[in-house]
Amino acid sequence: MDLKEKNPEEKLNNNVNDVNNLENGDNKKDVTAEKEENIEKNTDNNAKSDEKNKKENETIKKIKKIIKPISLTMKIITWILIAVLLSILIMTVLSRKTDVFGHRIYLIVTGSMEPKIHMKDAVFTKYTEDVKEGDVIAFEQGNAVTVHRIVKVYTEGEKRLYQTKGDANNTLDKGLVQQNQIKGKVIATSTVMGNAIYWLQHNFIVFILIIGILLIILIIRRII
User: Which residues 6+ apart lie within 8 Å of 117 measured at CB?
Assistant: First the structure.
C-alpha cells in the first residue's frame, strides 16, 4: 500500500502548533515560578509581620506589668486619702454635737493660743474628768467652743471650777468653767490636718466634684 505524503501546508500548521505548545509550556512554567516566588515573598512578609507584632505585644505586656502596680498603688493612695479626708470632715462636723469614742476634732480660728497652737491648727481632744492646772481644754462657752489653758483650779466642796486663759491673751477669761462645760483635754495638734479641714470646709463642693470625677474615671476604665 502506498503512503500518501503530507501536504506541505499541513506540515507547516503542525510545526506552528508545536511551537505554540512549547511557548505555552514555557509561559506556564514562568507563571508557576512567579506564583511560587510571590507566595514565598508573602510568607516571608507574614513571618516578619508576625515577629514584629509578637515583639510589640511583648513590649506592651512589659509596660503593663510596670504600670499595673503603679496604677494600683495610686488607686489605693487616692482612696485612702479620700477616706481620711471624709473621716476628718465627718468627725469635725460631728464634734459640734457629740464625740466619737470620747474624741473630738476642733479647728482653731483665732491666735489666742499662740505660739503653742496656731490659727487653722486642728486640735484633737479626749474627754476626761481628770484635768488640772496647766492642761489645755476645749470647753463650751455660749454657742462656741473655746480652747484655752487652765491657769487655776478652785474647789467648792465636791465641785471644781476652772479659771482659763489664752496663752497669747493678757487677761483671764471671763467667768469660771464648770466640769459639765468641758468637752475634752487637748492631746494632740496638727497643722496639716487643720489646713485640710479648713480647705474642706471652704471648698466642699470642689471636693465632691473631685470625688465624682474620680468615680466616673474608674467606672469608664472598668467598662473599657
Answer: 108, 123, 136, 147, 167, 186, 189
**Is the pTM higher than 0.90?**
no
Classified as helix, coil or strand, 100 is: strand
**Secondary structure (3-state) at 221:** helix
Distance (Å) of CA 90 to CA 6, 198, 200: 118, 13, 11
| CATH classification for the domain delimited by 93-211, as one of 3.30.750.24, 1.10.10.10, 2.10.109.10, 2.60.120.10 | 2.10.109.10
Q: Is 217 exposed, middle or buried (0-12, 13-18, 19+ CB in 10 A)?
A: exposed
pLDDT digit string, tens, across residues 33-76: 565 566 666 665 666 566 666 666 677 666 656 555 556 666 67
Name residue, grid cell 469614742.
101
